[in-house]
Design a protein that fits this description.
Layout lengths: L4 E8 L7 H17 L4 E3 L17 H17 L6 E10 L3 E10 L2 E7 L5 E2 L2 E2 L15 E4 L2 E4 L4 E5 L2 E7 L9 H7 L4 E5 L8 H15 L3 E5 L16 E5 L2 E5 L8 E8 H10 L1 H9 L6 E5 L25 H25 L3 E5 L4 H17 L6 E5 L7 H14 L2 E4 L3 H11 L8 H22 L1 E5 L3 H6 L12 E2 L6 H14 L3 H11 L20 H5 L2 H14 L3 H11 L11 H17 L1 H4 L28 H9 L3
Parallel strand pairs: 1-2, 2-3, 10-17, 11-12, 12-13, 18-19, 18-21, 19-20, 21-22
Antiparallel strand pairs: 1-16, 3-4, 4-5, 6-7, 8-9, 10-11, 13-14, 14-15
Helix pairs in contact: 1-2, 7-8, 7-13, 8-9, 8-13, 9-14, 10-11, 13-14, 16-18, 17-18, 18-20
Length: 652
């Protein structure tokens, strides 16, 4: 394992039914190939040593002996390899019972044998004619093989360093309560399924969803591998299905109907799975019910893979909050509905006649205004009840001011303009502050003046203030305490900045009329800024947020892995370097730049918790939120020394 990842593979060898020597050669070749790719565990199909479709030949003494001999040779072959192999083989137990087994082999040793539990006996599958179920074996069964006492049973857990895995076979997955589910509750991080399910119209799509669902329900990695070309005979056709899944997501899958052997490889993030399980009380509750169940643990030797040989092949999304393709359209529409639903309930409950929003011409206030419009339309209320207030100050540019006015006009809301310059000058004069000194007093004084105006306007019109701040700003503390930090209901509090941009773009492309669309597109392309510092001589924005606190695309990436999985800085740094390496069309950031902003993130994340401890209500939209009432409970005075120390130690 490296950084919590274990590299696994699903191997589909060429097969000749009942030709154990040929099948063994194919298995060995794929084992060598997997070893060269740094694979730590490779799984082969059900009964791959003999072929699955041997039928009554399974009862022939010669085939049984050939299978045992092939397994013995495979064990010997494994002595010079560091990986673990899982192969399907029929074995005689107790002199008379034939078991359909998954054999776990490592470095010249059979670590365990897992027989199939649910033996089908319907339609084209008559396995009960030949095989005995694992449920018929006594607990603690052992098989004497190659001079070793090998544990046999369906409740074997294999401990490979910091990863624990278990096995189930084909039909076991289809059971109402599968052996794999019990293994996962018993502590298995990954379940491997050796299968030989035949191909039927529509079956592949169903199976794919079944694998995804099983990995999601059990919060596990799931590696499924089925028989391929060469297994097909008589009425049955096998297409070579294989999937590597992690907690409901397919990481890699094989090509169906390939005429060649296949080896699919990916990594499973064991740390991520354990983080999910650690906070999932449903999993914990049911796992507790299995605490007294008997699982036999087999200790194995972890693969001796140098760190420099480990290559992460799975894709790490640079924008974890932002899906791609058609899913993005669906996500944006759903989020807008969640936001407006929450706001509509607050309006109806309070009996508010109006809502008041400060409109700056920036992304956040634009999204908040769009949510207000959507909520009012759903409630059948006149949009004139939405009071948009633009409050030009010392740093307001013509571009943002005009966009604010044009947007409100296009949406048909009530427009109010209140310039804050004079009020701030009086306030600064009362404080004895030089207005030419553009420090934190100069900036925060403007933010608080704007909030005061919004609050008083809400009182004046019988409404409440809708907040505009987003999740990314809350994480960094990029908000003025009791300034833009405060409202009566914050519709954007669980929307990260990278997603805000896409939401505004989605409305522009799918909802807005031509007039509003052009305004929204320009807002999307405007540099992010609080506009609290005067513009330059050309009237352009001087104070650019991302120049000061860092790129939001990086901060949102950091935030996702901190909130979602509780990863340490070193793990987040590793993932970020992979996500932002410039491949697959992603933005490129050098490791030293990532390290710099990761350090800034943790410093600000800890120091600014006091602002998050008193947030107003706002709708929870995704799995990541900083609400102090449920999602994130952190002491305001927590020490960041350990996190910053690890950031400093990162090697670029």
């Amino acid at each position: 394992m490296y950084n919590g990842f274990i590299k696994v593979a699903a191997a589909i060898p060429g097969v000749k039914v009942a030709d154990c020597n040929f099948n063994l050669q194919q298995i060995e070749a794929l084992m060598v190939k997997a070893e060269g790719l740094g694979v730590e565990v490779v799984c082969f199909p059900e009964l791959c040593i003999t072929g699955y479709t041997c039928q009554d030949l399974f009862q022939q003494q010669l085939l049984q002996e050939e299978a045992e001999e092939a397994l013995l040779r495979l064990v010997e072959f494994s002595r010079n390899l560091s990986l673990t192999a899982i192969v399907g083989v029929p074995l005689v137990f107790g002199g008379s019972r034939l078991l359909n087994c998954g054999a776990v082999i490592q470095r010249g040793r059979i670590c365990g044998l897992v027989p199939k539990t649910f033996i089908p006996n319907y339609k084209e599958f008559y396995e009960q004619r030949w095989f005995t179920s694992a449920s018929q074996l006594p607990d603690g069964s052992m098989l004497r093989f190659c001079g070793q006492n090998v544990p046999v049973g369906s409740r074997l857990l294999f401990e490979l360093g910091n990863c624990t895995f278990g096995l189930e076979i084909c039909e076991d997955l289809w059971a109402p309560v599968s052996p794999g589910s019990e293994l996962a509750l018993g502590g298995a991080d990954i379940v491997f399924n050796l299968s030989a399910s035949n191909e039927l119209v529509g079956k592949s799509a169903y199976l794919r969803e079944l694998v995804k669902g099983q990995s999601a329900r059990t919060l596990s990695g799931y590696v499924y591998v089925g028989s391929g070309f060469g297994e097909s005979t008589q009425d049955l056709v096998f297409s070579g299905r294989a999937y590597i899944a992690e907690n409901g997501h397919i990481q890699e899958e094989a090509d169906r109907f390939s005429l060649s052997e296949q080896l699919i490889v990916s990594e499973i993030d064991v740390e991520r799975l354990r983080a999910e399980r650690g906070v999932n009380t449903t999993y914990q509750t049911q796992a507790g019910q299995f605490a007294n169940q008997h699982f036999f643990c087999v200790e194995m030797e972890p693969a001796e893979l140098p760190a420099e040989r480990f290559t992460l092949t799975r894709k790490v999304a640079a924008l974890p909050f932002v899906p791609s393709g058609s899913e993005l359209d669906e996500r944006c529409e759903e989020i807008l509905c969640i936001q407006s639903e929450g706001l509509a309930q607050r309006i109806r409950h309070t009996g508010a006649k109006t809502v008041v929003v400060g409109i700056s011409g920036g992304l956040d206030s634009t999204l908040a205004l769009l949510v207000c419009v959507h909520a009012f339309d759903r409630l059948g209320m006149d949009r004139k009840g939405i009071i948009g207030i633009t409050m030009p100050g010392f740093g307001t540019t013509d571009r943002t001011y005009n966009n604010a006015i044009d947007l409100m006009k296009g949406l048909g809301v009530t427009i109010r303009e209140i310039n804050i310059r004079e009020a701030c000058e009086v306030h600064f004069r009362d404080l004895g502050h030089d207005v030419s000194v553009h420090d934190v007093t100069f900036e925060n004084g403007q933010a608080r003046e704007r909030t005061q105006i919004l609050m008083d306007a809400a009182n004046q019109t019988g409404g409440f203030v809708v907040g505009t701040g987003d999740l990314s700003e809350l994480a960094l503390g990029w908000a003025t305490y009791n300034g833009d930090h405060m409202s009566m209901y914050g519709v954007n509090v669980s929307i990260p900045k990278t997603l805000v941009r896409h939401l505004v773009e989605w409305v522009a492309n799918n909802v807005a009329d031509k007039y509003s669309r052009e305004t929204l597109e320009d807002i999307v392309n405007t540099p992010i800024s609080p506009e609290l510092i005067p513009a330059d001589e050309e009237g352009e924005i001087v104070q650019k947020t991302e120049d000061l606190v860092g790129p939001y695309v990086l901060h949102d990436f950091f935030l996702y892995y901190v909130l979602r999985f509780g990863f340490r800085p070193a793990k987040i740094f590793y993932l970020a370097c992979h996500a932002f390496d410039g491949t697959n069309g992603t933005e490129k950031y050098a490791p030293e730049i990532i390290k710099k902003w990761l350090t800034v993130f943790f410093r600000r994340f800890f120091s600014q918790q006091f602002k998050r401890s008193c947030l107003p209500d706002g709708p929870k939209v995704g799995s990541c939120s900083l609400s102090p009432r449920g999602d994130w409970r952190m002491p305001s005075d927590a020490c960041s020394v350990a996190w910053l120390k690890e950031c400093e130690s990162l090697e670029c």
